[in-house]
From TrEMBL:
First-tier enzyme category under EC: oxidoreductase
Domain of life assignment: Bacteria
Protein name as catalogued: Succinate dehydrogenase iron-sulfur subunit
Keywords per UniProt: Ubiquinone
Length: 119
């Protein structure tokens, strides 16, 4: 059985506690995506883990995060492929650490909305 450790960024904007990387070690199969593992952490280890997801097919971008500093879509990343690239310990952080609301959830950015003309 293959195992992996996800060191997941934990933070809550509403509390004053500092952010931490919390390790979760779990088994994985060759078919699972990183989003599958985050869902398993949520249901099997810690029901307070917060992250976004929507389409689960790589279209909406809501599951965007960083793996060892590289921005990726969790639903599109095969875990076995990540292990072959980075080893079996991954650092999972928000894609933008300055706008974190909670754990891996980031405030939406609408900086280009002023350019949209509504008629
Ligand atoms: S959940 Fe939509 S891109 Fe991953």
């Amino acid at each position: 059985m293959n195992t992996i450790t996800l060191n997941i960024y934990r933070f809550n904007k509403e509390t004053v506690s500092p952010s931490i990387l919390q390790p979760f070690t779990l088994s994985y199969s060759n078919e699972e995506t990183l989003l599958d593992l985050l869902m398993r952490v949520l249901y099997e280890f810690d029901s307070t883990l917060a992250f976004d997801k929507n389409c689960r097919i790589g279209l909406c971008g809501s599951c965007r995060l960083k793996v060892n500093g590289k921005v990726m879509l969790a639903c599109s990343e095969n875990v076995a492929k990540l292990v072959s690239e980075f080893g079996n310990e991954l650092e999972i952080t928000p894609y933008n650490c300055t706008k974190v609301v909670r754990d891996l959830i980031v405030e939406p950015q609408f900086e280009n909305c002023s350019e949209i003309e509504v008629k």
